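Follow-up to my post from last week.
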Amino acid sequence: MGFERQKDFGTPESQSAEQVTLTIDGREVTVPAGTSVMRAAAETGGDIPKLCATDNMKAFGSCRLCLVEIEGARGTPASCTTPVMPGMVVKTQTPRLEKLRRGVMELYISDHPLDCLTCSANNDCELQEQAANVGLRDVRYGYEGDNHLALPTDHSNPYFDFDPSKCIVCSRCVRACDEVQGTFALTIDGRGFASMVSAGQDEDNFLASECVSCGACVQACPTATLQEKSVKAIGRPEKAVVTTCAYCGVGCTFRAEMRGEQLVRMVPWKDGKANRGHSCVKGRFAYGYANHKDRITRPMIRDSIDQPWREVSWEEALGYTAGKINDIKARHGARALGGITSSRCTNEETYLVQKLVRSVFGANNVDTCARVCHSPTGYGLKTTFGTSAGTQDFDSVMDADVIMVIGANPTDAHPVFASRMKRRLRQGAKLIVIDPRRIDLVRSPHIEAAHHLPLQPGTNVAVMTSLAHVIVTEKLYDEKFIRERCDWDEFDDWARFVSLERNSPEFLEAVTCVPAQTVREAARLYATGGNGAIYYGLGVTEHSQGSSTVMTIANLAMATGNIGRPGVGVNPLRGQNNVQGACDMGSFPHELPGYRHIHDAETRSVFEKDWGVTLDTEPGLRIPNMLDAAVDGSFRAIYIQGEDILQSDPNTRHVAAGLEAMELVIVHDLFLNETANYAHVFLPGSTFLEKNGTFTNAERRIQPVRKVMEPANGYEDWQVTQMLANAVGANWNYTHPSQIIEEIARLTPSFAGLSWERLNEIGSVQWPVNEKFPQGSPVMHVEGFASGKGKFVVTEYVPTDEKTGPRYPLLLTTGRILSQYNVGAQTRRTDNVVWHDEDVLEMHPTDAENRGFKTGDWAKLASRTGETTLRVLVTDRVAPGVVYTTFHHPSTQANVVTTDFSDWATNCPEYKVTAVQVMPSNGPSEWQEDYADLAERSRRIDTAMEPAE
Amino acid sequence: MSSTVETLRRMAGDIARNFAAMGHEKAVLATADHIYQFWDPRMKAAIFADDHSHLSPIARDAIEYLQTGSHPASQTRATEFNSVDEVGHSDAG
Ligand code: SF4
Ligand code: SF4
Ligand code: SF4
Ligand code: FES
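User reply:
Got it. Predicted complex:
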């Protein structure tokens, strides 16, 4: 198959409903009003030469290559900046135009190295292509004059080079960085001939600049000036396969561009509905972990965790594991067995893991990492709206007038969505940020939050209730909406509660540390500023009152009528690529796929018939309770697919004790992760590039994942689960994930309309997708709430039991950073470490001074649970009394200090609030040293087997 | 006493505390409902067997209610689950 770039229509699509008919080169064409002449020509089969225009940014009109003639108009206007008009008659090819274009091209080429044959962009270069299109054969100016050919290449970015000698100063890169990414890292310095693209000021180097390595400029560059290093190393791609990013919940789709079995680059897919052709550094560049030397591709077993690993055949590994499972089941019963599904694996893979646990192990002890992130979203939104589904699609943000961001840091954790949000903010939408830290969004180029509420960690419910207090007492609520959509009496009870003096911003200021006036102004803005949209993240959920905060958010949206249309809504920003899907697939211990409770005999019988088994009728254990039960001896074996609970879950020592107490820990992963230090069986996993299936992103969009290379370990992950199930006694015989999708659709009404074929046809779909919503559901609750009326819930502020005091006077809160992902197992094994090679502790200058710290000093971070050491970064991003760190590196293990406290309804851990003390230190803590020792011992491998051929 | 029992006491107490705004009677039912729908049998058994004087009044009454073998109908929408053929809602995390 030949390789083609995705078609570039030159200017963005017009959203207008009005149609305009005109004539181009004798063809009558009809396009939406507002379309450029260039795009109208391109859409109807006649491309006009161009250089400075590209279809994901506004036309600029600088290169003058796209000139056309228009009957009745003077001169030769640029087609990229000229909108279509009814009855217009356009000519795109005339001798006059050809001559003009050749002249323009000649000027460009005279200052461009003529090394096309050896250039890495050869045959994939727009300049070369356009020179051929305009028929340039000869350059009259000679190449001897002043030129830029000797300029040195900037290699500083680990993923792409900048070779200014090839630059034609079209400024597509600058505009991509401004308009698409919103970082404003690039400028054109100088004027006329001296003009040059530059990143930053003095350093003039990409790595040292503000650049976040999103790749938008590289994609926009029509020449080899900005180009992926991998293209130089591997060569030009030969084919492209569309697939979905396996990092965050935005769910960007990419063209995986291949040369043979080698991945040359990942290029964001312009037709991707979640990303619309944009990407971030993780999805775009950080896929190198797939071939990292740490990747394990052979099964391994050992009898106890102090032994080295022994590489064995698949047969031996599965036989050994099945023997142990059957033995434990015989001695302790099915409820001693369990599993954890992965939000990084496909829907089909998670579905099979829960099926394995329920139907083959015979218990309902299955849980997933949503437990530690968005389970409170599930509880809170379901209680209020009747369904936990986030209410909008990502496109909706472009209709928002007021955007409230609570406990989320989208520019780092959901970067591609953040770029769209920033675009909307630059268009004039207002921003309210509720976060203990001054996240980047609060002030970034051309964006300034109208209000930042820097609350004390742990006081979300108090702040949200005080916002409601203002909206109710100042009568800013939407009575019509409430009367139509909600129960008025319930609203009345709630309104009375929030109106109490003890819920006023003035009264609560002492607890929240947010000035009452700021709260009042923010409440007024949200209630009266037009379409109000709330976006929130783990800063809301990971608290002892996570579920309550979610309900306060829902209350606020209902009270102001901000539900049920584009531009509004309640939007949980989910962390991992498939956390929505993992939940949909029945990963919780109390329910079967499609959110049906295990107590329900009728639902059970549907599955029992299909699976040919009898199911346990009682809910199983959640992850933290599995660990408790392990210590108590009633839970003995666990199968963990693609999760690293030792690093990701709170109170590391407790997790370690639980795992250590088990007889059989099976880790199914790419690497010997931290959890594997306590494992007896290691089953090698496959990457998202090596498997077929689907992921469901944060907007409920189901998107295909496509295999572009053979699994290095020999099997896709669903195959490994199937082999394990069969070894234990099942008789599964899926040969392709499409059959698993069929089973899911057959057994789960919300997915009834789903199939692999249909997905391949339409690209993606947002569930529910069934008879009622055959095209899927971008915005929820349009006609009314999913199940009846919206419910207002009274949410009393209950302070956490984790309190500061003389011994632990500071509050620690945690988060993540753009270049790293979750526990970092993948991103730490890529060049992304140039941006973040260790976790640091952010501390306010006052606290630092009181303790005698300066940036770079080692500090001991101690809580009631444990202690660790890391370096300090002094910054006023955090408020006095608050410290902050990330959890990407196992050597730091921030979770050694986090506590066992958790959300009251879902047991989602309270990561965001830990009382700590910070004191000078000169090295790693005892736990860190012991752990480093254990980790090293535990990763020994006896490679007794013959090497693979 | 094992630390598991301590965890269970804390969990029951947290649930009860957050339903307290409903008033005692309703909060007892909501707490009982929550535990019935979300707890594994061994967790229920352990808290039944525990000394209930460590529990708050709401939590204690809820546990004792469940201990009689009955359980309430769902008290909040969080414990209304899809029925067999229902498309309905999710409680995704
Ligand atoms: S990689 Fe992204 S952030 Fe960096 S300069 Fe290019 S567009 Fe801007
Ligand atoms: S680097 Fe590329 S995109 Fe930027 S001005 Fe030069 S040629 Fe144009
Ligand atoms: S924003 Fe998320 S989904 Fe998109 S490329 Fe980055 S990590 Fe992948
Ligand atoms: S493409 Fe129209 S002026 Fe450059």
